[in-house]
């Protein structure tokens, strides 16, 4: 046997002095440096009571050392469970207990809060700080830089990624070695990554975008990563002249565009900008292309599948779409109630099938059966349509669908109209309870430049573009939309905030 994920992404670089990670201060980790560090960590893990197949929960700041923990888990056949550093001890408690984690890694500042969590679920607790130090690193320093890679198959688990938990408890998506390897191989080919590429990386590594897309692709191709702990506008501008590619979320691009120090020359040598994790406004596409000459490549993926579609590397990168299904990925639009495939152009539920699709939800066979069909198609929960040219459009989440007076209203359709209203920067459309209609439409707007919006004029301007039943009953203006760490608008929070807007006072 072998270890396909380790052998293909990491083992190929053993002994190579080629640069892998370059930090903002100029510090460089070669591929050999990184693999030596990962081997020390892999050797330590069994000493801490972690065996192949066990889970390691990691809630630490982004650093080369944190990334090496991922590599060590792959090499040692251990399931990697990254967690957002913003989660509270109560939230971490659920993830650790549900996953059966044998080891929890945290920042020293969280040690006291997580001690009872670790004790309750029977996990060992060690620290790793933002600088890479801590009890874990201290113990690893005495370990050898060689480790006999644990045999794994493509069907063995490599990682758990928990869903955001917007409805009920988070679900642990089980991702195999084959899931991760097949997806990064497909993306590296589709986006033409080579060893000559230098990736500007400011994404978190607790999420599929920054870890399993950006990092895995770079490892596969053998290129260099400009490794920033977080998005820092000054650092991005300083380092971009050294880069050839960049992956980001929409806010990365809007912040770049909002700074006068981002002229066309800064990006003239770049070959590719990728955006994902949240929809990119058409206006951002246009502004970025006008400023840089580059058309951002937008793609579509999710926790359970990694990437499913991508706009083309060659050909039209069409704003408002997520392109075409990736090679090896099947995508269809189905009726949410019957599961029957709908004719091209109709809106329905997006289902996908391919080697990228996860194995199921950890310890949730009922949820797995609900969302993963016997024939391998995964019901994504996203609503979409395929246009006459084959481009996939994301209309919204099924749970965000508004049914008002018996009519289906797709928030994205209304948002596109609102975004075109003079003075509107962006919008979010939600359904809230209504005594007559069941639900009704509310538009939440952000003004350009924090200016004033004439809401009466805004309502009047959309009257010719939307049927009356689709028009928001109420428009509200907010300084900014609530978003998660990956830039997705948190509509659940908006629905909660405005749920009583039309209900009679008690």
Tell me what you see in this structure.
The protein is an alpha/beta fold and 506 residues long. It folds into 3 domains: 4-12 and 28-152, Rossmann fold (3-Layer(aba) Sandwich), CATH 3.40.50.980; 190-397, Rossmann fold (3-Layer(aba) Sandwich); 401-497, ANL, C-terminal domain (GMP Synthetase, Chain A, domain 3, 2-Layer Sandwich), CATH 3.30.300. Helix content is 29%, strand content 25%. The chain is built from 15 helices and 25 strands. It has helices at 4-10, 31-47, 64-76, 89-99, 111-121, 135-140, 177-190, 209-221, 233-239, 250-257, 282-292, 365-371, 411-419, 455-462, 491-497; strands at residues 19-23, 28-30, 55-59, 79-82, 103-106, 124-127, 157-162, 172-176, 198-201, 224-227, 245-248, 272-275, 297-302, 306-310, 324-325, 330-334, 348-353, 360-361, 378-386, 392-397, 402-404, 407-409, 424-434, 438-447, 474-477. The strands form 6 sheets. A 9-stranded mixed beta sheet has the order 2-1-10-9-11-12-13-14-15, sandwiched between helices. A 4-stranded parallel beta sheet has the order 4-3-5-6, sandwiched between helices. The chain has a 4-stranded antiparallel beta sheet with strand order 16-17-19-20. Helix 1 (4-10) packs parallel to helix 7 (177-190), helix 7 packs across helix 8 and helix 10 crosses helix 11. The longest helix has 17 residues, at 31-47. The radius of gyration is 23 Å and the shape is globular. The termini are far apart.
């Amino acid at each position: 046997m072998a270890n396909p994920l380790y052998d293909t992404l990491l083992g190929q670089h053993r002994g190579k002095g080629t640069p892998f990670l370059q930090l903002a201060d100029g510090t460089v980790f070669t591929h050999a440096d990184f693999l030596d560090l990962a081997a020390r960590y892999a050797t330590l893990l069994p000493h801490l009571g972690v065996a192949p197949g066990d889970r390691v929960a990691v809630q630490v700041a982004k650093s080369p050392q944190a990334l090496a923990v991922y590599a060590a888990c792959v090499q040692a056949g251990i399931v990697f469970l990254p967690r957002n550093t913003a989660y509270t001890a109560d939230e971490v408690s659920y993830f650790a207990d549900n996953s059966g984690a044998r080891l929890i890694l945290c920042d020293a500042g969280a040690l006291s809060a997580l001690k009872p969590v670790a004790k309750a679920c029977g996990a060992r607790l060690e620290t790793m700080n933002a600088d890479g130090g801590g009890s874990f690193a201290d113990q690893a320093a005495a370990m050898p830089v060689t480790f006999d890679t644990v045999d794994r198959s493509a069907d063995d688990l490599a990682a758990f990624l928990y869903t955001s938990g917007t409805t009920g408890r988070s679900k642990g998506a089980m991702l195999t070695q084959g899931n991760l390897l097949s997806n990064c191989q497909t993306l590296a080919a589709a986006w033409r990554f080579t060893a000559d590429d230098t990736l500007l990386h400011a994404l978190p590594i607790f999420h599929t975008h920054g870890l399993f897309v950006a990092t895995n692709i770079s490892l596969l191709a053998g290129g260099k990563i400009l490794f920033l702990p977080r998005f820092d506008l000054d650092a991005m501008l300083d380092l971009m002249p050294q880069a050839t590619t960049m992956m980001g979320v929409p806010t990365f691009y809007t912040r770049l565009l909002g700074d006068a120090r981002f002229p066309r020359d800064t990006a003239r040598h770049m070959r590719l900008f990728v955006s994902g994790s949240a929809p990119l406004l058409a206006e951002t596409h246009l502004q970025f292309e006008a400023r840089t000459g580059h058309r951002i490549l937008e793609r579509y993926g999710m926790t359970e599948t990694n990437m499913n579609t991508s706009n083309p590397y060659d050909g039209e990168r069409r704003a408002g779409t997520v392109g075409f299904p990736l090679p090896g990925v099947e995508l269809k639009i189905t009726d949410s109630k019957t599961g029957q495939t709908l004719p091209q152009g109709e809106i329905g539920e997006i289902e996908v099938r391919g080697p990228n699709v996860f194995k199921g939800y950890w310890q949730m066979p009922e949820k797995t059966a609900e969302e993963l069909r016997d024939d391998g198609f995964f019901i994504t929960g996203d609503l979409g349509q395929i246009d006459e040219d084959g481009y996939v459009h994301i209309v919204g989440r099924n749970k965000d669908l508004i049914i008002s007076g018996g009519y289906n209203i797709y928030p994205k359709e209304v948002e596109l109209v609102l975004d075109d209203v003079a003075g509107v920067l962006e919008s979010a459309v939600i359904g809230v309870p209504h005594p007559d209609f069941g639900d009704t439409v509310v538009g939440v707007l952000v003004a350009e430049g924090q200016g004033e919006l004439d809401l009466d004029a805004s309502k009047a301007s959309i009257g010719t573009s939307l049927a009356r039943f689709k028009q928001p009953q109420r428009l509200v203006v907010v300084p900014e939309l609530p978003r998660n760490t990956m830039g997705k608008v948190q509509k659940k929070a908006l629905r909660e905030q405005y749920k009583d807007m039309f209900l009679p006072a008690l």
